[in-house]
Each structure stands twice: as C-alpha cells, then as structure tokens.
Amino acid sequence: MSSSTAYAAPTGLAAARATGLNKVYGEGETRVVALDDVSVSFGRGEFTAIMGPSGSGKSTLMHCMAGLDDVSSGSATIGDTELVGLKDKQLTRLRRDKIGFIFQAFNLLPTLTALENITLPMDIAGTKVDRAWLDRVVETVGLSGRLSHRPAQLSGGQQQRVACARALASKPEIIFADEPTGNLDSRSGAEILSFLRNSVRELGQTVVMVTHDPVAASYADRVVFLADGRIVDELHGPTADGVLDRMRRFDAKGRTS
C-alpha cells in the first residue's frame, strides 16, 4: 500500500487526525525518519489500537498526535484544533482540557488517595468536578470501594484503574494510552482493557492505544498497523488470531510481505 493512503475511521467526525505527518530526528548521517507521510483519522466514540514492529513509529505517532512531541511537517489536529504552530502554553492547555493520558507507569502520587489522584488534574486547573460524571466513571472502572485508599494499598491493576479514571474524569475529547497493560499481569491487563472498551461503548469515549500485544489489540474496534514509519494496513473487528496473522506478514525489516 502507498504511504500516502489515508486510513479514515468509519464512524462520524474525527476526534483526531493526521495528514501528511512527518517526524524526523537528527541530521545527515544520524537522520532518522520516524514518521513518513502518515495520514490517519480516529473517529469519535471508537477504540483504535496502533501496532507495529519495534521502531515502527507507533509511539512517535501517538506522541505527535497528543502534542507531546513536535511535528517536522504535515498536520495534526485534535477535534478542530491544529497542533502545529501552537505555543507551549497553548499546547499545555489543549492537553489539559481535551486529552487524557494513560501510560505504562501509573504516575500516581503516593501521598494522595485514589480519589485525590483522580481529581488532581482538575484541582490543579481550578476546574469544577462534575460529580455525576465522576461517579459514573468510578463505577465503570470498579473503584467505588477503594477511593480512600492510597496507591500503596492498591494492587497494580487497581492503580492502573485509578490512572484510567483520572484520564476520563475531565471528559476529554480523546484518550491516548501507551502500553497501558505493560506492567500488569494477564488478569489485571484484561480488566483494564475491558474497562477501556466499556468506556467507549458505555461512556462514548474515544481511545487510541499503542500496544505490541495482539490480545490487547483484539479489544479495539480497529487496529492500524505501522512499519518503517508508514501506515501499511488496518483491521476492523479484530481478533487476537487475526492481529497475529497480520503481524506475521512483517519481515525482519518491519515491511509487509
């Protein structure tokens, strides 16, 4: 497939979109093209997984789309806001108001309770907590009986659920999750993935997840595959076996056969 092929999400308006996106690190002999003319959109109310071999550019794509890394050229938008050209304060405000993040590390403050960790971004921003929405998020993530516990009193899976609830609490336009089950056992990982899927189906959330795990990707509505910084394929209604079969088409250089 051509690197310039645009892979558009099948549902409604895009929560995020990249058009002709390029990311280059270094110059001369040290020049590395991490993203090469990537065009892709992520539909509202959809769960998308991004997969590819190591070094394919999947985390770089997420970081550029989330405003965590600069774009070398091309366009990246969240809703109707173009990220390219925004100043640091504008990017900070955008990430605070429109984007939720879930990382492999839980990033919880040990001195705060689960509830305080969930509401911390809104407390810092000085925004009012929507109690009805917060209660719904807490119920969906299954933390109702753990809100007064500090991180050390929670299991790894419970801590990641706190991180998920924190990402959802401010009603972001989109959540970016980077290997969210990487530090969890298979049971806890399945719980987190089920929560992310339910947040899309029951709460109308939009989730974009970077993962290397075909089982994790099978929870998504579609999977976008990268190789050598280019989008080379996508799969709708994925199964773990279907994702694994697609991944096996990549040769040692990360290209499709």
UniProtKB/TrEMBL annotation:
Domain ABC transporter: 16-253
Gene3D superfamilies, alphabetized: P-loop containing nucleotide triphosphate hydrolases
PROSITE patterns assigned: ABC_TRANSPORTER_2 (PS50893)
Xref: CDD domains: ABC_MJ0796_LolCDE_FtsE (cd03255)
InterPro entries: AAA+_ATPase, ABC_transporter-like_ATP-bd, ABC_transpr_LolD-like, MacB-like_ATP-bd, P-loop_NTPase
Keywords associated with the record: ATP-binding, Nucleotide-binding, Transport
GO cellular component annotations of the record: membrane protein complex; plasma membrane
Molecular function terms from GO: ATP binding; ATP hydrolysis activity; transmembrane transporter activity
PANTHER family: ABC TRANSPORTER RELATED (PTHR24220:SF685), IMPORT ATP-BINDING PROTEIN (PTHR24220)
Protein name as catalogued: Putative ABC transporter ATP-binding protein
Organism of origin: Kitasatospora setae (strain ATCC 33774 / DSM 43861 / JCM 3304 / KCC A-0304 / NBRC 14216 / KM-6054) (Streptomyces setae)
